[in-house]
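We append the chain.
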Amino acid sequence: MTKWYNSFGSVDDSKMTLSKQRAKLIREVSQRVLTRSVRLSNVVEWRGMKLIYKKFAALYFVFCCSNEDNELLMLQLIRTYVEILNDYFGTVSELDLVYNFDKAHCVLDELVCGGKIQESSKNAVLRAVKAHEAVESDRG
C-alpha cells in the first residue's frame, strides 16, 4: 500500500513511466529498510530526505519526509495510524490491508491531508471513517 503526496520526478531515466519510477523508488526504500539491523535507528537518510519506519508484527510502515521534519512526531504518527487500524480491523494484518486497502487509505486520509497532519485524535479519525462507511452503505 502506498500513498504519494509529492512527485519525485525522474529517478534515473526520463523515459521511464511514472509507475515504473515509483516501483523503482519502492524497491529502493524496501531494500534500505528491510536490510537494516533491528539494533539501528528507525530513521534512515535517503536521497536528501528521511525514511522513518516502524515494524509492527510482520508489517512495516514507512514515511518519507524532509530533513526538517520531526522524527519523533513521524514515529508517533505511524503508531497512531497502526493503533487506529487495530481498532478498526481488530488486530490489523497484511490480509486486512490487501483486501481493504481502500479503508486503510481512508484512515490515512483522515490522519494526513496533502502531506500534513490533519487530525491526531484516534477517536475523531475512527468517527470520521465510520461516518464515511455509513454514507457508503446508504448509497449501496
